[in-house]
């Protein structure tokens, strides 16, 4: 911002409004995608992501790795059946057949600060190989103690796609909220403290 003083124009610092979270901390109110340094800082100061690999922090996202449990459909029940894939490897993977749908989760555990939200996207390489994720990977402010459940599908018509623990499946993009939410997901959310893929709780909570 420029101000004229004595006929000379001077730069004056632009004021940034701040918000106060329910924990009493103040944060900038500018809504923006977080950079690598901000992601690192929030992980260090707020424990925002546990069990992450620091080498997988990108310029504006964090790569996420596939966990060791998936859930499969069954002809005998509408419920999803868990399957441990911890013994599968890149060299000897579990294969998704064309059109198959599974629930999976990430190795990373999330504790979202009350002024930060996140969106999950597949890695572009995975999408180009034929993996598909039903776009429900939203991380609310206050969501905590949970791995991220993924809704994966093989969109290929002819080829199988491999899955194994540690596969770089996607990335989380983090956003700073324009204002702090009035009610935290830590209070109203139904999917806190979920370790491993979690099937729908819609019937439980009549959603």
Sum this structure up briefly.
The chain is 12% helix and 41% strand. It is mostly beta strands and 207 residues long.
Summarize this structure as a short list of keywords or feature phrases:
207 residues; mainly beta; six-stranded antiparallel sheet; five-stranded antiparallel sheet; 12% helix
Describe the structure.
- By secondary structure, this protein is mostly beta strands.
- It is about 10% helix and about 40% strand.
- Strands 6, 8, 9, 11, 13 and 15 form a six-stranded antiparallel β-sheet that branches. Strands 5, 7, 12, 14 and 17 form a five-stranded antiparallel β-sheet that branches.
- The protein starts with a strand and ends with a helix.
- Mean pLDDT is about 85; it is low at about 1-30.
Range of helix content: 10-25%
Q: What is the terminal-to-terminal distance?
A: 49 Å
Rg over CA atoms: 21 Å
Give the amount of beta strand, in percent: 35-45%
Runs with pLDDT <50, length 5+?
A: 1-29
The biggest beta sheet, please?
6 strands, antiparallel
Q: Would you tell me the overall average pLDDT?
A: 84
Shape: globular
